[in-house]
Amino acid sequence: MAEPSLRIETPLDVRLKETGFSPGHPLGLFAKAHKESGGIASFVGQVRGGQAHALELSHYEPITLPAMRDLAEKTAERFALDGLLAWHRVGVMTPGQAIVLVAAAAPHRRAAFEATDSMMDHLKSAAWFWKRERRDDGWHWIEPRGQDHADLARWKTD
Length: 158
Fold this sequence. Notes:
The chain is built from 4 helices and 8 strands, in the order E-H-E-E-H-E-E-E-H-E-E-H. By secondary structure, it is of the alpha+beta class. A hairpin with a 2-residue loop joins strand 7 (129-135) and strand 8.
């Protein structure tokens, strides 16, 4: 699924993807675009197997991408990043397919780890996506778990 003419936008590359993607290709290009950074941390979320046969993510198009960009800008500023990549799938996916790719480039590793973690906690619990999964007995809506909300609360700065 590599996109041969793929280019990474710097310092922020935020995308909604309606088709599948292979995380290794954009991650490699992101690392190449940030050769001066001391650390790059990344996270790939994928559709779990098990009881679910498919996962569907829908969203409200007028606000999703602008809100993701705003979140990326705030994250980059908070953690003094050199760059941030945030790609999120929408539509129907099957087990093993990538849902989300987040990567942060920073002068030091801790900032890259924390920025990636923060970005994922926000995307998981406070984002603009509705999730449902198809099981043997039909489609079921998925709500964030209590732990997801607790994870998000760690990043509040009041």
